[in-house]
Amino acid sequence: MQQNGPRTRKQATETALKEGLSHFEFRPEARRFFVTNSLNIILGIALVILVWWVVAEAMILTRGALFPTPPETFSSLWNALGGATVNGETIYYHTWSSLLRWGTGYALALLIGMAVGISFGSLSRLYDTGMVSVYVVQMIPGLAWVPIAMLIFGLGESATVFIILMTAMPPIIINTAGGIRQVPPVYSKVAMMSGKDRSSLFTKVLIPAASLSIIDGMRIGLANGWRVLIAAEMVLGAMVGLGATIYDSRYSLDFVSAFVCIIVICFIGLAIEKLLFAGLENTVRNRLGLDKEG
Amino acid sequence: MLASLNGVSKVFANPRTGKGLVALNDVTVNVEKGDFLCLVGPSGCGKSTTLNLLAGFEHPTEGQVLFKGRPITGPSPERGVVFQEFSLYPWMSVLSNVAFSVRRGSRAEREEVARRHLEMVGLSDFAHSMPNELSGGMKQRVAIARTLAMDPDLLLMDEPFGSLDEQTRRKLDNEVLRLWKAQGKTVVFVTHSIEEALMLGTRVLLMSASPGRINREWSIEAPWPRDPLSPEMTALKKDIVRSLQVCSCANGAPGGGFITINGSVD
Predict the structure, then answer these.
(1) Do B76 and A193 touch (CB under 8 A)?
(2) For B58-103, what is each residue's pLDDT tens digit?
């Protein structure tokens, strides 16, 4: 029945029923899914822009506010991408400064968070007391770290990095520890009876088995860090950066620049989430065999 | 004597709920080299606890668990376990799963040993498949290959085919018998199916629940393959079922399990 090769789902289903087959093949519809998926993204973004436009026009009409409209903002964004300065610097320099702060804080959060998470996850005694502390730290809102950071580091880069670290780390610890505790005991038993030492138990068994949960934690930590970065730049008086520019618009009344920065922030967040993490999660899911039918 | 439990008791006590459970009370079992020892009994009679003690995953509350004359302090490749639940690592190929448990050698050498053992269970063609692409029976065959690839002196099997359908279970039972005979291993096999125990074991130990105890032992000398419907086997089965009913009633075992003729337990 394979003489024509794979066909459409409908044809293949009909033939299979007619010929009484138990298995059949058809052309995968990956392209169709890609198209609907892209369409969803475009429609979703269009909806946000539409609401924005309506609100902008309404504010201009009723209050005479300098509310930037989408066309104004996008043309300004276009100029900025072409090299025009925004708030004294190019948009690239602002973005780079923000990304650098965030990258440093997040890298530290990953390093410390994973190490602490793995030890909490494997030692029950440590978990029981340690997790209480982690939950307490997690309850502190991002901006509440500002005075603490100022007291320890003064104003400046270190303070910003510290705030990012403190808000990105708790979800990484919680999910890493939780993921390791949820690994089926039989996985550890197999490693133990095979005579594996503790380090290969972790690297070959526990961490791969907990990887989906660990990625979840990384994802939440990343979003936390990105959000608080903008706030931290605003408060800690950074001279450059996307957050600093948004904050400066209060005085400069250059709201269009603020909106340009907001778009860049959304775009970077979306790119990291959709490209980096969705891809990473898919790869891991595949490796764990979670997408295949048992 | 290869392994033994001498007057072993095992108590699980939960300090949070204040509840204690006596899983085993004064159990003595001797495992001789070459035995195919089957442990049968209702749920909660301590069969799996006995196996976990021999594997080294649990330690006795009282008494001694010995292997080659020395107390067991922890799990070891000398005592391989085939687990009841599916225990292959889903992120490793079938071949890597087996090679993971081979102790010595370079990666290539370990894979060679793994390949040989996959061939033994008839799964050479699936070396590069992922565990999720296999049926339940195939997964357990890989688990057996993995355990044999460790070259253990004692093979501990904890209801390895409990979650499989009857047909597949029988096929795998025969495969285990074949490997046991070919390799001259010693096997301790836990099952709740009396019939399975009768088809396989050189010795059958009946355990009773609440608290777990050894109730009675039978030696079976009949050659394999055994016919479950032969008068000898039928008589033996009747004898075992009768002992089981007597002990369950005598203990008034709460949730002690109900055994039907073909050996399934609720």
Answers:
(1) yes
(2) 999 999 999 999 999 999 999 999 999 999 999 999 999 999 999 8
Across the interface, of A189, A194, A292, the residue whose CB is closest to B77 is A194
Whether A289 and chain B come into contact, CB under 8 Å, resolves to yes
Whether A200 and chain B come into contact, CB under 8 Å, resolves to: no
Complex-level ipTM:
0.86
Which of B91, B135, B144 is most worth mutating to test chain A (most A CB atoms within 10 A of its CB)?
A: B91
Q: Average pLDDT for residues A252-276, to the nearest whole number?
A: 87
Chain pair A-B, CB pairs under 8 angstroms: 60
CA contacts within 13 A on the Cβ side of B68: 8
- pLDDT tens digits for B3-31? 999 999 999 988 888 888 889 999 999 99
Contacts of A134 (CB under 8 A, 6+ apart): A116, A120, A170, A173, A174
Tell me, what amino acid is at B121?
A: V
Q: How far apart are CA B173 and CA B187, in angstroms?
A: 12
Exposed, middle or buried, B162 (CB in 10 Å: 0-12/13-18/19+)? Answer: middle
Euclidean distance between CA atoms B42 and B27, whole angstroms: 16
Q: How near does any CA of chain B get to the CA of A206, in Å?
A: 10
Number of helices (H) and strands (E) in chain B: give both, helices first.
7, 10
CB contact at 8 A, B9 and B63: yes
Instruction: Considering only the beta carbons, identify the residue of A184, A192, A209 that sits closest to B75.
Output: A192
Do A193 and B79 lie within an 8 Å CB cutoff?
A: yes
Please give the torsion angle defined by the CA atoms of residues B125, B131, B134 and B138, in that order, rounded to the nearest 10 degrees. Answer: 80
Tens-place pLDDT, residues B212-256: 888 888 888 888 888 888 888 889 899 988 887 765 544 444 433
Type of residue found at B80: G
